[in-house]
Specification:
Blueprint (H helix, E strand, L loop, with lengths): L5 H12 L4 H8 L3 H14 L16 H13 L5 H10 L6 H10 L11 H4 L2
Helix pairs in contact: 1-2, 1-3, 2-3
């Protein structure tokens, strides 16, 4: 979910300060009552309208690692997610097949879901 802009937060607090109800403020600024309520509560409790720190785990593949992943996939186009995961884990880079899949999606690269059976490879 995208954070509410600082400009909108300021307008919400200014309208609430004039005595307008939270419902009317939400209607006027075309935002949800929950947003107005949360920003008003934050301002009352802390005196600040700054957005809180984003929750969640940081991405494993950004910057140099993302470029490294792209190069690896270009050199090994038939590598499965499990093989790519093993490659990075052998280099002490903690990752999961999900994080690799998400990074490949960012790079707009499709991936193999399953490895080819051994019997099919021998032909």
């Amino acid at each position: 979910m995208k954070a509410t802009s600082e400009d909108l937060r300021i307008r919400i607090i200014k309208l609430i300060a004039t005595g307008m109800s939270q419902r009317k403020v939400a209607q006027r600024l075309m935002t949800s009552q929950g947003t107005v309520w949360a920003i008003t509560k934050l301002y009352r409790e802390t005196g600040s309208i700054k957005a809180g720190k984003s929750l969640g785990r940081p991405r494993t593949f950004t910057g140099r690692r993302l470029k490294s992943l792209k190069r690896y996939v270009e050199k090994h186009p038939d590598a499965t997610l499990a093989e790519i995961e093993t490659h990075y884990k052998n280099r002490n880079i903690p990752c999961s097949s999900t994080s690799i899949k998400n990074a490949l999606k960012l790079l707009k690269i499709s991936y193999k879901k399953k490895s080819v059976c051994k019997s099919a490879r021998k032909t």
